[in-house]
Design brief:
The complex is a heterodimer of chains A (about 425) and B (about 240). With about 425 residues, chain A is α/β, with parallel strands linked by helices. In chain A, about 15% of the residues lie in helices and about 40% in strands. Chain B has a domain of about 170 residues: P-loop containing nucleotide triphosphate hydrolases (Rossmann fold), CATH 3.40.50. The relative contact order of chain B is 0.19. Classes of the chains: A alpha/beta (about 425), B alpha/beta (about 240).
Chain lengths: ~425, ~240
């Protein structure tokens, strides 16, 4: 550990003496092994310790939650809002909805999330967590409009780490389209370490879309744990390129019959961006379905990683699990690593996985150029065609057009 | 319009075109016929600017040295190649491709780019003329299209981009008689005094529908015989053997 840390429990507000002691113990546990290195199997393609050493002089948790001055909102479609600065709620607007059906508040830091992720970032989060939100949707309430969570950051985050915990609960029969939207650059390198615990009860449906709408020096890690009830559905779209480092780790537990989940990702990485998507889908019950389609375009010196594991319990008969990752590598210095894994204990299941990577089809580029399109534009058309497919399942037309624009912006390098 | 003098082209150090001369004037239709391997498709590729060829000799198009122009510039200046095997391009929507193409060409010609609505109106009209079902336009480019649909799509692009010189590389191959007629009608309706066609084909049958002013026989990289429309019928009877 060459990194100099400046982690201080005293900087966290409103802690009781007992909490301070307990958090200090957790922090000491973190210190024993520090940030994950590539020696750990889960981090073999993303040596976080090395990356942080290279990009940070020091790391401190001394942050304030002052609102950044400009909060620009999405104009393309009507929506509800939650504004966060550095992960903490600044304001909310649910004018489209019946307000008593939605509960939104700061995350109660006394709550434990009982996460056993086996990685030290979770420990660090438990020790230093100071922001985050809890969102709960009442039984059978289907939100009329999507909810956009605006993630803004204050300007003075150089060498800082943000630790947040979020909890999202959809009660039986409720429905929500949740867009996790990040924008704006803080200038300096900073870290955001988020834990999100999602619970989707019987017949509930959550669509979660992660968007990074500009280039950022952010180094983000997010651990999402999802638990699904009977016949519930979770869909996740990741359009989060633009961050210097991004690792999204998803643990999805299909706990009850006929529950299903899908993960779609379209990333266009440039410069030295490094992004990893790691999934673990636990088929814990029969008749469940999981679907993953991960698409990466790698430019310049960027690196994309996909580690996807499908785990099928002995009782999870009639499981249907699908996993595919495809990468387009546009430069010699770019890299894509994929590690698909299947671990199956049931005997009547349908599981498939595939992974391909290749370069852009030069004949296709030639064909487009013979129609007057410049090489640059031709490549953009092909990249767009490659990534756009991921949005096929979005049914809300306004939202789809908005997401297509986000994708186009990413292809143009933000 | 197009003047080719002593054109030599080699790929992977193998000489394919061995000194070809051709002079095409506005309003003319030229056909190039010839046996397999005579260099017909190489000529089309070289004119469209495909990479990988070593070229010697002179190609003058509208007063410009063609070798100085990039692939997309050739298209923008008015050269169109209808491919023998139009590519399937997964993910790329046909309408978006056509609009990008048309606007790239219009922009280069100093014309105003079309907005989506104007474009859609235009493309619907053009598609109708060629008996192309509108639903093909919202599908991925050529993906799952039949041979005939792909070729009709090429002619649609030609009519959209309004080139001065259209090169049709074996556009008749893979077409049934109805599709052949539609393609030929498309070409004939576009033909005028200002533009010209170079039709590359193995067979006489396309020339029954599109009447050429000149037929050239290409053999072993050179034009060995030039005649009028009657030459095609003669070749159909006697074959290329005695011309080699």
């Amino acid at each position: 550990m060459t990194q100099s840390y400046d982690f201080n429990i005293e900087k966290i507000k409103n802690l009781s003496p007992e909490e301070k002691i307990s958090r200090q113990k957790t922090l000491d546990l973190f210190y024993k092994s520090g940030f994950p290195t590539k020696q750990l199997e889960d981090w073999k393609f993303t040596d976080l310790n090395l990356i942080l050493n290279k990009n940070f002089d020091t790391i401190s948790n001394d942050i304030n939650f002052e609102s950044s001055n400009e909060l620009k909102t999405i104009k393309n479609f009507e929506h509800n809002c939650i504004f966060l600065t550095n992960g903490k709620i600044i304001s909310t607007n649910f004018d489209w909805e019946e307000k008593n059906k939605i509960l939104i508040k700061d995350f109660n830091q006394k709550e434990t999330t009982n996460l056993d992720t086996g990685n030290t970032l979770t420990l660090l989060n438990s020790a230093l967590s100071s922001g985050g939100f809890s969102l709960e949707i009442a039984k059978n309430y289907k939100l009329k409009k999507p909810l956009v969570i605006y993630n803004y950051f204050s300007k003075n985050l150089k060498n800082k780490i943000l630790n947040n915990k979020n909890s999202i609960k959809l009660n039986e029969g409720s429905e929500l389209v949740l867009i996790d939207y990040s924008d704006g650059n803080t200038g300096g390198n900073f870290i955001k370490n988020t834990i999100e615990v999602v619970s989707i009860d019987k017949n509930a449906v959550l669509k979660n879309i992660l968007i990074q709408d500009s280039k950022s020096n952010g180094h983000f890690y997010k651990y999402i744990k999802v638990s699904l009830g009977d016949s519930s559905n979770y869909e996740n779209y990741i359009l989060s390129s633009g961050l210097k480092l991004n690792k999204i780790e998803m643990e999805i537990n299909l706990n009850k019959d006929i529950s299903s989940c899908s993960i779609y990702s379209a990333l266009n990485l440039m410069e030295d961006q490094h992004q990893e998507i790691k999934t673990r889908i636990n088929h814990n019950s029969p008749n469940c379905k999981s679907y993953q389609k991960i698409k990466n375009v790698l430019n310049d010196k960027s690196k994309g990683v996909y580690q996807g594991k499908i785990f099928v319990e002995k009782i999870a008969q009639k499981t249907n699990a699908y996993q595919l990752s495809k990468a387009l590598i546009l430069d010699d210095d770019a890299e894509f690593d994929a590690k698909p894994e299947l671990e199956i204990y049931a005997d009547d299941v349908k599981c498939s996985h595939g992974s391909t990577s290749g370069s852009i089809d030069s004949d296709a580029v030639h064909y487009l150029m013979t129609r007057g399109i410049s090489k640059k534009e031709a490549i953009k058309l092909l990249i767009n065609g490659f990534l756009n497919e991921v949005l096929d399942k979005i049914t809300n037309n306004e939202l789809k057009i908005f997401l297509e624009k986000i994708l186009e912006k990413q292809i143009n390098g933000h | 319009m197009l003047k080719i003098k002593n054109l030599k082209a080699a790929i992977n150090e193998k000489l394919i075109l061995k000194g070809l001369d051709l002079d095409i004037k506005p309003g003319e239709v030229h056909a190039i016929m010839g046996p397999n391997g005579s260099g017909k498709s190489t000529l089309a590729n070289v004119l469209s600017g495909k990479n990988g060829y070593e070229i010697e000799g002179e190609i003058n198009f509208d007063g410009m040295n063609l070798n100085d122009l990039k692939i997309e510039e050739r298209a923008q200046k008015g050269i169109f190649l209808a491919f023998q095997y139009p590519l399937e391009i997964p993910g790329v929507n046909t309408n978006i491709f056509l609009k990008t193409s048309l606007n790239s060409v219009r922009k280069a010609r100093g014309e105003k780019e079309l907005d989506t609505l104007t474009f859609l109106k235009l493309i619907k009209e053009k598609a109708k003329e060629l008996n192309i079902d509108e639903k093909f336009l919202s599908r991925q480019l050529n993906v799952g299209f039949s041979g005939g649909e792909k070729k009709k799509n090429e002619i649609l692009q030609m009519k959209l981009l309004e080139p001065k010189l259209s090169i049709l590389d074996e556009t008749d191959s893979g077409l049934d008689i109805d599709a052949l007629r539609i393609v030929a009608d498309g070409v004939n309706s576009y033909k005028n005094k200002k533009n010209a066609f170079l039709i590359i084909t193995h067979y006489q049958r396309l020339l029954d529908y599109i009447k050429p002013d000149y037929i050239h026989v290409l053999s072993a990289g050179k034009i060995v015989k030039t005649g009028n429309a009657d030459l095609g019928e003669q070749l159909e009877k006697t074959g290329y053997a005695n011309l080699r």
